[in-house]
Model the fold of this input.
Amino acid sequence: MDLKKRLTFVQNKIRLAQKRSIFNNSVEIIGVTKNHSFETIVDAQKVGINSIGENRVQEAEHKFQSFKKTPQLIKRFIGHLQSNKVKKCVKLFDTIDSVHSFKLLKKISKESIKLNKITPVLLEVNTSKEPQKHGFDTTNLEEILMCFDVHNVCVEGLMTIAPHTKDISLVRDSFVCLRELRDQISKTLKTNTLKELSMGMSGDYEIAIEEGSTQVRLGTILFGERK
Done:
């Protein structure tokens, strides 16, 4: 099955999930192109995927040397960002969707100020409470709220990775947790600017959409297994 047919298959699944959902959200597909060639990014844009996700700064830097050939493409960093990669990441990417701590956000702010730019970000939340995962603790609302007073960054929403399990109820609980946390933050700050809920990947995106996801990060289901 070629990419266009895969995308059509996914889009049909998304529409069905939206019909089952009570939230009436539009859903953006982020094509996860890590470990795929630059040509995969070009092919993705040809079929209408205008937002791509990479999770390694060094790999992305190599690919992005050719980005003058692909205008109007949003480059999103979705992986674990190490402190020593922040400077390069802020320069390379349009958004950073996996800010896992206040300390990291401050570093992003510092580099953004140097470049005189506003960096859109998503805050990564560890909704599954798995120790091997990064992200803000769902119970530490104070630290999360601090992120909204940082210069030269714009917190547009939240992101999470559901537990890798066959227990659908646990996966759904993870997504519900993120949505409810977003609502709690919005109520506390008296704002409706937190538009994005980035949740759902190739194995669980339909459940995520049912629970209010606005962005799904899809790699394998679109581009096949990574090398």
Summary: The CA atoms of residues 20 and 210 lie 6 Å apart. The longest helix spans residues 168-189. The chain has a mean pLDDT of 94. The first strand starts at residue 28 and ends at 32.
